Amino acid sequence: MEGGNNRTIVIGPQFCSPQPLQISMKKKVYFLAGYGYEVKDDYGNLIFTIENVLGFFRSKILIFDAVGVPILTLKSKNFTWHSRWQAFKGDSTDEKDLIFSAKTSSKFQFTTKLDIFLANNISEQVCDFRMKTSYMESNCDVFAGQSSTLIAQMNKKYTAGSIFLGRDKFMVNVNPNVDHAFIVSLIVILEEISSSGKTSSHSSTH
Questions:
Q1: Which of 134, 148, 187, 199 has the most CB atoms less than 10 A away?
Q2: Helices marked H in the chain — which ranges?
């Protein structure tokens, strides 16, 4: 879903800025009520809120724009060999509203690689985007397809709040004309896969 003028549009053209963008994502942990994220631009303006919605069988994650309209729903796909997540338009989880899928291409103890496939890439022979984390997953690079073209980078900030309270903070640099709603959704998926891997590592032999 790439638009004209060399823009990388996945969620919507309104999320593409002609200027490079620095975004901060702060994880907020709620007592007895899950967690969410506040996403702000480099001027401190709120651009997205993200909420983990707990379901009967499994949870899903909703991304809202600045005025509270749901723009994307993320959910994991159960019973797949690779960790796999799907992203849908608005608050839908209907297959016809699928925008993209993301799955781990490899996961070692300290790094993760994700392949991202747009909905029209049925065969999934070649990924449309890919993510690669650094040692201990403190940094992440997002690339266009199999190329070395970098479109965004994430850097995790470690603070006392993040270490002891789970209030992680991420700084995300998005290249000009790249859909920043898409990039934010990838960071959330990466964090979900990373955190689930940590919690399930002890039970992986069962």
A1: 187
A2: 160-165, 180-200
pLDDT in tens, 178-201: 999 999 999 999 988 887 765 443
Overall pTM surpassing 0.85 (yes/no): yes
User: Residue 19, exposed/middle/buried by CB under 10 A (0-12, 13-18, 19+)?
Assistant: exposed
pLDDT in tens, 116-136: 999 999 999 999 999 999 877
129-144: average pLDDT:
90
Residues with Cβ within 8 Å of residue 144, at least 6 apart in sequence: 8, 128, 129, 151
Which residue matches tokens 């967690």? Answer: 35
Closest CA to 93 of 115, 78, 113, 83: 78
The first and second tokens of residue 168, run together, are 């992680």
> What are the backbone angles phi and psi of residue 202, rounded to the nearest 5°?
-75, -20
